[in-house]
Amino acid sequence: GLIWLGLSWDGEPIFQSENRPAHVAAANHLLEEGKAYRCFCSKEILDAKREKAEQEGRAYRYDGTCRNLNAEEIESRILKGEASVVRFKTPTEGVTRFKDIVRKQVDVTNSEIDDFVILRSDGSPVYQLAVVVDDMA
After folding, report:
1. How far apart are alpha carbons 24 and 30 in whole angstroms?
2. Tens of pLDDT along 37-62?
3. Which residues, 6 or more positions from 137, have their beta carbon under 8 angstroms from its beta carbon?
4. Full-prediction pTM beyond 0.70?
5. 126-133 LR contacts (CB < 8 Å, sep 24+)
6. Domain count of the chain?
7. Domain for residue 77, yes or no?
8. CATH of the domain at 38
9. CB–CB of 98/107 below 8 Å?
10. Residue 79: which domain range?
């Protein structure tokens, strides 16, 4: 494997496909903590919003349509069988600051960060969630 590169590891490899229960549990934990939310926007709705942004000459960013749905609305839509994804709820104000080896200190205005999907409508995790959960294992 990676020995020829001089890389060593501290445990057995973790296969993301085998760790799905941990990924889903992490997404559910974020939902319970209010750090994520269910989004019921259809592909058609999102495509229309992307197209409008393109026509207006601006970058598309999810507008948070489902960000503040109350528990009753969410439950009602789930019971109706509406598909949903789970989105990470990013801060809307302030700045996120981190140190990067190459770029040094990086400041990102929070209003520029999208509420990104962490769990698809079929229940499968996206890479951004899976890799963090697996790294924590």
Report:
1. 10
2. 999 999 999 999 999 999 999 999 99
3. 14, 19, 22
4. yes
5. 127/16, 129/23, 129/26, 129/27, 130/16, 130/19, 130/23, 131/16, 132/26, 133/19, 133/22, 133/23, 133/26
6. 1
7. yes
8. 3.90.800.10
9. no
10. 16-136
**What is the H or E stretch that residue 69 is in?**
none
User: Which residues, in sequence order, are CB contacts of 128 under 8 Å at separation 6+?
Assistant: 116, 118
* Phi (first) and psi of residue 85, to 5 degrees: -110, 170
Q: Return phi, psi of residue 66, to 5°.
A: -100, 5
87 inside domain: yes
Residue 135's contacts (CB-CB under 8 Å, 6 or more residues apart) are none
pLDDT at position 130 is 95
Strands 36-39 and 117-119, bridge-based pairing? unpaired
Q: Which residues does 127 contact at the CB level (< 8 Å), separation at least 6?
A: 16
